Each structure stands twice: as C-alpha cells, then as structure tokens.
Amino acid sequence: MSIIVYILFSPSLIVFIAAETSSITLSQSLSYGKTLVSPSGIFELGFCNLGNPNKIYLGIWYKNIPLQNIVWVANGGNPIKDSFSILKLDSSGNLVLTHNNTVVWSTSSPEKAQNPVAELLDSGNLVIRDENEAKEDTYLWQSFDYPSNTMLSGMKVGWDIKRNLSTCLIAWKSDNDPTQGDLSWGITLHPYPDIYMMKGTKKYHRFGPWNGLRFSGMPLMKPNNPIYHYEFVSNQEVVYYRWSVKQTSSISKVVLNQTTLERQRYVWSGKSWILYEVMPEDNCDHYGVCGANTYCTTSALPICQCLKGFKPKTPEKWNSMDWSEGCIRKHPLSCQDKLNDGFVLVDGLKVPDTKDTFVNETIDLKQCRTKCLNNCSCMAYTNSNISGAGSGCVMWFGDLYDIKLYPVPENGQSLYIRLPASEIESIRHKKSKIIFITSVAATLGVVLAIYFVYKRNIADKPKKNENIERQLEDLDVPLFHLLTITTATNNFSLNNKIGQGGFGPVYKGKLVDGREIAVKRLSSSSGQGITEFTTEVKLIAKLQHRNLVRLLGCCFRGQEKLLVYEYMVNGSLDTFIFDKVKSKLLDWPQRFHIIFGIARGLLYLHQDSQLRIIHRDLKASNVLLDAKLNPKISDFGMARAFGGDQIEGNTNRVVGTYGYMAPEYAVDGLFSIKSDVFSFGILLLEIICGNKNRALCHRNQTLNLVGYAWTLWKEKNALQLIDSSIKDLCAIPEALRCIHVSLLCLQQYPEDRPTMTSVIQMLGSEMELVEPKEPGFFPRRISDEEKFSSNLNHKTSNDELTITSLTGR
Ligand SMILES: *[C@@H]1O[C@H](CO)[C@@H](O)[C@H](O)[C@H]1NC(C)=O
Ligand SMILES: *[C@@H]1O[C@H](CO)[C@@H](O)[C@H](O)[C@H]1NC(C)=O
Ligand SMILES: *[C@@H]1O[C@H](CO)[C@@H](O)[C@H](O)[C@H]1NC(C)=O
Ligand SMILES: *[C@@H]1O[C@H](CO)[C@@H](O)[C@H](O)[C@H]1NC(C)=O
Ligand SMILES: *[C@@H]1O[C@H](CO)[C@@H](O)[C@H](O)[C@H]1NC(C)=O
Ligand SMILES: *[C@@H]1O[C@H](CO)[C@@H](O)[C@H](O)[C@H]1NC(C)=O
C-alpha cells in the first residue's frame, strides 16, 4: 500500500519511470519539472527555487541529499518568475536558457561543434562536448569553469592562462539568494602565485603561496590527510589548485559563505553537513591587520609585533593599538656595500604577501642569498619549495606584508629577512648574552627555589595580589571598571547569579551598550582560587577559536577579582543532555554538530594554539552553548600550558572531575593530551547516551557508563546505548560510529588512544576504525571507585564537583 502511495505522490519517481537521462542533444530540451540525472544518480540538474516559488533557477544539486544540496546555479542574478522556461542546446553547441522567448542565460563556447551533446557527469560537472570528438576531457564548455559558491571534489580553481580564463568561487548574497555577493576566493598570478579571499576589491584573507606541501597559511593541510588529496599545478599554461576525496563514497564540499565571511569545508555524514574546516580561523588570518614589516601572532599581546630590526613607524598610534602604519627599519640598509648587510632567519611563519616576488626554481638557498644581496630592494628570501630538503628560490621586494607567526613552529616555514650588519651583530650579541644569563640563572634558580620553598609558608597575601596585578597588566587584557560590572550585574544580585564555577559564583550581566556578559567572581575568602584565576586569564586571553569561550576582559580591584566573558544564552551542555525534557531539543544532527565542535576546540588547544594546552577538566558542564547551539569549551582554571614538544606532565596536585579523569591521571597524577582525549571519550558517550558517567546508564547494572558501554559493545549491542530521544533511524550508523570512536578514546593506555587530529578524521570520514581495547576504569564498580577516591581524602559529596586539591581543606 505504502509503495503505491509513494509512486503516486513522488514526482521524482515519475521522472525516473519516464526514462532518466544524463544528457541532452540538439533535438532535445529540458523544461520545468524535468531533470537530468548523472549516470550513477549522484547529481541532478533542473529547475529549482530556494524557498521563493517566484524565483526559479537552473541549478545542479545532490540528488540524494535533502539539505543545502544546491552546488551550482546558472542564472543566479537573473531568476525566472514562473515555470515557462526551457533549456536547449542550440546548433552552435551552446546551452541556452529561455523564458517567454527571451534569453535568460547562455554558454559561450568559442568553438563550433558538429554534433554537440550536453551531459551531467557524476562529479557534478555539466559539460558540452562534441560527440564526433573521440578524446575524453576536451569540453567545449564546462560548469566547473564557472563555479558558483561551491567547490566540489576534482574541480580546479585558478587560471587557464592560454584562454585568459580565471576560475574562482563567488559567495551567494545569502543562503536563499544566489545573486553574487562581494566575497570571492581564487588564485592571483604573482610570480609566486598566491591565493586570496577578496571582499570586494580588498584582500580579506590570504591562504599564502603553495610551498610544495601546502598553502603557506594552511597548516592543517597535511600531505598525508587520509580523506583528501591536494594538488597544485603551476606552469606556463595553467595555474590551479584542486582537492579530491580519496574514497569515492565520501561527500565533501567547500563553500564560500557571505554571511559568516568564511570559506567552509563541509563533510556529509549521511544525515547532516559537518563543518570540517573554517578559514579565516583567528584574528591574525585577517589580511594585513598589522601593517608593513610586522608579524601577527595569537601568542603575544598585542597580536602585532615589529619584525626584528624594525620599530613602529608612529609609536603613539602603535601603542593605542592602531597598527595600520606598520614598522620601519631602526637602521638603514647599507646596500651599496653588500658586505654590510646580512639576514636573520625566522622560523614558523606564513610567508609574506607575494605581490612583489621573483622565483627561480633551479637555484639553491646559497645562490638565492647572493642574488638577494645584489638587489637593494630585495628584503627577504627563502626556498620556493619546502618539500624534502627544500629547493628553489623566492625573493621579496619592498615592504613585507601579512606575515603570521605560528605558535607551533612546524606549522610555519622559515624566512631569511635582510638586516644591516650592525643589527645582525646586536642580535648575535644578545644571543650569547642570553646563553650566559641562562647558565647564571640556572645556578641562581636552584638557590632561589630553595629559598622560596622555605619562605613560602610565610608569604603574605597582599604581595601575592600585587604580583597578580602586575601579571595582568603585562597581559594587556582589557580591563573593566568595577563600577561597569556592578552596574551590569545589578550589584551582583542573586537574581543575576547563573551558576557556581570552580572558584566562585557566575553572574549574568548587561553592559550599557546592550552586550550580554557572564561575570566570574572569585570568592574573596578563597585564597585557593588565585592560581586558577591567573592561569585562566593568562591562558584564555591568548586563545581565539570559535569553539572556545571568549574572555572580554577582567577586573581586579582590591578584593574583587572578576573575569568577564561573552554570555552564552543556552547555558551549559549538561543542562540539555541530562534533562529529560530539554534533551529532546537536541536531535542527532545537533548533537553531532556539538561533538564535532568540541573536538575542534580541543584540537586547537592541543595542537594549533601557541601554547599546547591541556584542559584537564573537560566535562559537560564546561561546554557552553551559544544562541545557535554552537559548543564553546570554557573553564580554563585547571588548564596547563606546554612549550614546544612537551606533551606530558606530572603533578602532585590532581585536579579535575571524577568520572572524567583518565586512570593514569587520577592514580599517578600523570597528565597528557591523552588524558583530555579520555575525558572527551566520556563526554562523547554522555552526549549519545544522555546519562552521566557516574550515574547508572541502566538500572540493573552496577557498572558505570564506560563499563556499561564496553559490555554492550562486546555483546555487539551498542545500539542500546543511544538516547531514546534520538529516535531517527538514519542517525544510528553515525551514532554507532561515535560510540566506536569514544571507546577508542577511553582505552586504558594513553598511547593506544588517538590524538584529537585522528578523532576529527575518524568522525569526519568513513575510514575503517580499529577495534578498541579494554577501557580504563572499566572493571571497577561505582562503589569501588568511591572508596578509592575517599581514600585519597577527596571531597566527593557530588559527582560533578571539581576536585581541586589532593590535600583537601
Ligand atoms: C511574454 O512576452 C510578451 C512580449 O514580450 C509579453 O507581451 C507577455 O506578457 C510575456 N508573457 C509573460 C507570461 O511574461
Ligand atoms: C583577460 O581578460 C580580462 C577580463 O576578463 C581582460 O581585461 C584582459 O585584457 C584579458 N587579457 C588578455 C591578455 O587578453
Ligand atoms: C554559512 O554559514 C552559516 C553558519 O555556519 C550556515 O548556517 C549557512 O547555511 C552557511 N551558508 C552557506 C551558503 O553555506
Ligand atoms: C635561474 O637561475 C639560473 C642560474 O642563475 C639561470 O641560469 C636561469 O636562467 C634562472 N631562471 C629564471 C627563470 O630566471
Ligand atoms: C631588483 O629587483 C627589482 C624587482 O625585480 C627590479 O625591478 C630591479 O631592477 C632590480 N634591481 C637590480 C639592481 O637588479
Ligand atoms: C618540490 O620538491 C619535491 C621534493 O624535491 C618534489 O618532489 C616536487 O616535485 C617539488 N614541487 C614542485 C612544485 O616543484
């Protein structure tokens, strides 16, 4: 019965019965309601509207994806009002879209075809070719040359120099208006080609030139990416970039988004589009924020710094955070006497804008240096190809623009910057001085350490406060007046209190300009929280990511220590997932969006932020949700930062929350990025199951959630874990995959657990997953666990309580 109804009411099926075709020839035309379908049924071409039936477009869309599926429109700026329109292939081999006998849109192939045919391919490319032409891939015209806002697997963006044809993405005005917006993304043909996102005629974001491995400004683009293959080709005839998916079953698209001013990469999960990658990502990704001869880094405050040997052009402006005039040399180059100039090597950079460059691929670095020294306007040089041992030569002339310094040096590349000999000398001098000072300091340090350990118990509080005040000043975190905050929060009225954080109450407030804020107030009585307070300010002030909560500023006045954050309308994640009513508001696509966002935030902390941060207290109540239910990790009071390659630490002060702590951390105080991965695993299970790890997932079980999940997994019964409010059957394969990933994160030995990079790759693709080994903590039953914690003298009156000290109070 239901099958008959389906046939009667499904128009697409009727088209199917009336012979589905992927091409039209001279004698044929396509009218409203008819479609072309690519040979394997992946893409469909026809007439569509974007919610307004009076605006009809000729478009191409994913046939089997119901949401945001349109990847190309022909007549974006020129919609048709009604359905009386026809697409025809004319005798010259051009596609012509007419409405009431007037031409709305047409192609213009330069060559005339004997026997033209227009075909929709499985790649989503609409092509016109000559049937008499035997060669494949010689198209008279193809839609891939004229993309809309979407880049598909296999599509080239760049230049066909012979044809003087540039292919770039152009954003739609909005989600339901495919008129061209002012945001575009494509390659500019400098000697060293660069890739820009333009807003109108202004550079908005620069990906950087291709350096043989990746775009200089795209550290996440790794050659061994399991999902994508990246390709860049540059020669006399063509310069282009394209990416393709390694597994044909993966569906992924890149969209230029006018609303958010971003280039977004999405992956289709089978149920929803997952945002896999976003550019620009932080403030330093905005083109030229810092002016000439500077570098931008999120690891220093202010984010703009002069290059070595340079000073602010206008100090007054520079000091008031107007960096537009940039920096100038402290001492002029001697140039004429080339022996008197030299170069300083700076590592970890996105190389400068390549507008004025020169490339020679056949010479090495030494010759490059000589060549640069011989030209007075050459300011910097480096290898044009950093793959392998490095090769080729690229030189920059004139002022250097839009350099970014990556906190993790291997994310960037080296650049040799020209300086006068006197400057080089002083840098060398400083270096040897530093070495001397370090060795003296090391000796002194031991002595001082002994002294302070001895002194510590009698250290007085006011001194500590002064110290914090000084540290905060050094940070340049915006300071709020106490009066501003008391006004905003109604003098910390109880009505404004929205929660209790690790070291004090949290209040909601509203600034005079209307912005809503959340204010964390360090309880004045608590001496214990001061370290956490400064840690939090120090760390979060330097962190900028869409999945981390933003610190707007702080206030430090006498006994009051306040942190001011952007306000998150939807509160914390735990109030959703552990609540019978509210959990129904989170359907599976939303939960997956949250999971993915947390993963990206954590990845940023672990790898991409300058500090390599271990959060140490990741849990549902520390994930906040904004108005659009985007997750933001908060509460960095327990976090630890690491320099360079250090990924593990040891502490005699175990902090964190029971139920989320990795075994090696809770037992031995050994923490690493892998203990955060463990906590992420717990969080993942909780989001899927809708129960706290410390609570029982199933009444008859004496196991905690991890134990329960593992038991069900071994019985091949993991389906039972999925929260009953996720009723959608289509979500199940994805949810099961998340459970699988979660169990990989929960494995007992840290070395077995994946990194957050792999977690994101596993969640965002259909790659094969290994079988998880037994999780940590599994054999312990709840009662044992409690005994274990009370033995250590912890305050465990409440599962959710954050344990802040081994010694208790
Ligand atoms: C079609 O075009 C003719 C002449 O240009 C015009 O008179 C007529 O109103 C149009 N019909 C529609 C439906 O737009
Ligand atoms: C290339 O095309 C642009 C416009 O698309 C035009 O301004 C320019 O003159 C062309 N260049 C050549 C060499 O034909
Ligand atoms: C732009 O991004 C927003 C937020 O991520 C999303 O809701 C919207 O659908 C995107 N627009 C397009 C055209 O993809
Ligand atoms: C590169 O440098 C070599 C050696 O100086 C020279 O022979 C060659 O012509 C140069 N190539 C280009 C493209 O300038
Ligand atoms: C230095 O390089 C610039 C840019 O390529 C060029 O215009 C200039 O002629 C060169 N000067 C010398 C002395 O070679
Ligand atoms: C860069 O260098 C690598 C290793 O030498 C080489 O395989 C690759 O072809 C080079 N790439 C370009 C664009 O020259």
UniProtKB/TrEMBL annotation:
Q: Which residues form the Apple domain?
A: 335-420
Q: Does the keyword Cell membrane apply?
A: yes
Reported EC number(s) for this entry are 2.7.11.1
The protein's matches in Pfam families, at most eight in alphabetical order, are given as: B_lectin, PAN_2, PK_Tyr_Ser-Thr, S_locus_glycop
GO BP annotations listed: recognition of pollen
Spell out the CDD domains in the cross-references.
B_lectin, PAN_AP_plant, STKc_IRAK
Instruction: Write out the GO MF terms.
Output: ATP binding; carbohydrate binding; protein serine kinase activity; protein serine/threonine kinase activity
| This protein's record includes keyword Nucleotide-binding | yes
Q: Which family does it belong to?
A: Belongs to the protein kinase superfamily. Ser/Thr protein kinase family.
Q: What is this protein called?
A: Receptor-like serine/threonine-protein kinase
Origin organism is Glycine soja (Wild soybean)
